[in-house]
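User: We ran a pulldown and think these components assemble together. Before we commit to crystallization trials, I'd like a predicted model of the whole complex to look at. Sequences follow.
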Amino acid sequence: MKQPILDLLRLLCLGVSLLLAQGTVASDHPDIAAEARIKAAFLFKFGHYVEWPAAAFTSASSPLVIGVMGAPAIARELSKAVAGRQIQQRPLQVVNITAPRLPANLHLLYVAHAHSSGTTKAVGNPLSWQSQLKERAVLVITGSPDGLESGSSINFEIVDNRVRFDIALDSARAHNLKLSSRLLAVARRVQGRAQ
Amino acid sequence: MLNRLKNNNTAFKKQAIGTLALCCLHFGSPFALGADAEIHTRELLDFSLEDLAQITISSVAKKPQKLSEAAASVFVITAEDIRRSGATSLPEALRLAPNLQVARIDANSYAISARGFNSTTTNKLQVLIDGRIAYSPLYSGVFWDVQDILLPDVERIEVISGSNATTWGSNAVNGVINVITRSAADTQGNLLVAGGGNLEQQAAFRHGGTLAEGASYRVYGKTLRIDDSQLESGGQNIDAWKKIQLGFRADDLSQGRLTLQGDIYAGRRNSALYSGDDSTRGLNLLARWDQRLENDSQLQLQAYYDRTERDLAGTLDQSLNILQMSVQQTLGMGTGQEIIWGIGHRSAWDDVKDQSAVLTFLPAEKYLRWNHAFLQDEITLRPDLKLTLGARLEHNSYTGLEFMPNVRLAWNLSPQDLLWLSVAHGERTPSRVDRDFYLDVPGIKLDGGPDFESESANTLEIGYRGNRLNRLNYSITAFYARYDELRTVDPTGSGTYEIGNGMEATTYGIEAWADYQAAPRWRLSAGTLLQHESFHFKPGISPNPWSSTEANNPSHQWMLRSSLDLSEGHQLDMTLRHVGKLSNLDLPAYTTADLRYGWKPHSDLELSLRALNLFDPQHPEFGTAASRSEVERSLFLEMLWRY
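Assistant: Here's a predicted model for the assembly, 838 residues in total across the polymer chains.
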């Protein structure tokens, strides 16, 4: 009885925060909208400093796919902004992910709400992003206080009114990704060691 | 003769040591952010990782913090603006700033100024290209023909009108133009640009790669050719020119941020007055190191060498070497205060050879030095109120020590509204043409002023900037300035003249601009400048035809731009621009309409067709009726390919 209530509460929280995030773009809440815009720009930038294994792409010209989960405002903003842009000479595709099943073709995933408390459970849940992306060459970026613990490689933090990010090298390595030292240089904190 | 010198853009202008860029972390970026009314996500994509990590969320949304640093009339020309304008040169890109007056003189020279005082030898504007001062101590002005960059590699151009000498140095009396190119890490891969039209042809190539972990580089080459312009009086001017430029930039981010960059160029131009061509050559090399220290403190060291050679056939052959070094530190005091201090030194030694009998610089070789120290304290009086106190001491070889203070106040009426006020004192220190210039033609003998002093300005500005619904941004600035010791050509006897400080002036006016995202695919921008100026000769100075060369300004100018994304990959941009008449030059007002159509058949390939001056076949923008060139209607087709 207890578990369904907790899940319900969690869903409710998610719903409210989604509403808030959407509302801010439409209405005049520049703060949150600005944060979303900066994060969107970071997602685009990150793509430049990650080395994916060749097998991550079906062909030399196939697009780089950025998935956004739980932040439709960022997905919308990003897909609008990257029109005509490229990363590593590849066209871009931004996908707003609403279903638990992740697309087969995915290179960068932003998870707005990830909590380490759910991680243990997530590992056993075949529909969690952690299980679906296990060992897949996908750079997972989160935006929660304990995002790195949930298994992501990069986590956004708001520090002193700025959007900063931390990096977990072990996680990136587990996903067969190489992060450039430039990215590490800008990070606020880097966990783990470079290979 | 004097005219020839000016037409060649050889004579007077200038700027000084600029460093406000440095006061912000990476070359002025937070400043630009605060200044720009709204930062679109698309523009954010062009910021470097470092810059993104430094932007305060509030500044992007038009909120306090860094916005208060922009208690000035700042217009930011973005990379996207430049691309969509179709501009093919730096001066043409500067037409995008409503707070600048840009007039094309002929095929290779421009008159560019802010707040009036425009001339072929504008001398109260500071211009920096990636931290390198672009003005020549020969006349305190910019030879625009040799200040070239690869436009697709520009990150943004910040244009600040008004007196900003405290932070930017003694020449920033009427404004500052700060050109910032992208980090090498942001210009990876190959880029090929080629374009041609009825008046000019250009081709450029850039290659960007990585050197080692955290270090990247780019190299580029560029060549251009511009045809002879047409004279208003009929016939063809002889001013066609061509230029080739090579350059590089490397950024190493492993230890702070180390930047090395340089350019080398050579240009040749037909000479209208003499047989033989004029030629220009130059090279520059700059190193800069930014390091973030503990406690929110930031240190920047910079040094550069800049050599320019300008051989004006039959007139003079100047070679000039400049060496500059500066240190700047930003200190977060943690008590609502941020202190920025800086010191710098610049040396210039030149040699003017092959001088004609009529026009000479004496001594032919000159060694000039400038030293400066400045201190600025930004005090947060209340969360919504910031006071910035700044002072600069600058020593120059001609007039010794000059003092340039500045007080700025920024008040955020609401998160979307900023009201600001600035009181500043700036000095335009003498250049060689003011002191060491001698002209001797039948009937006229002009001597440089042995006692020529710095021209000075006291400026009061009030500005308001706002943002509505994240779609409408606007800025309005009212200014009032009093100038003293302005340069004049004073009669000292029959047919003899000496350069002096015989004039005063008062100017006031309004600069305003706005942009509106009318629809997701449609952006509208508008800008206007209204100004009034009055010049007064000091007692005992009698006016003569040469005495007021700076009163060549329109009382008004305006522009309207529309940027429309027609459909995926298709863009249509329109610009309507009007400049009022220049009474002293008897130059009529003109309105031009420019059109650009851009097509991206493939994400790596962009084709664009630009038509300039649709309304009239040709119009003059500057100069006297007898000798001025006209800007003709033109078409330009360009291909940009990234691979």
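Residues 29-35 of chain B form the longest helix (7 residues). That may be worth checking against your pulldown data before setting up trials.

User: Thanks, that helps.
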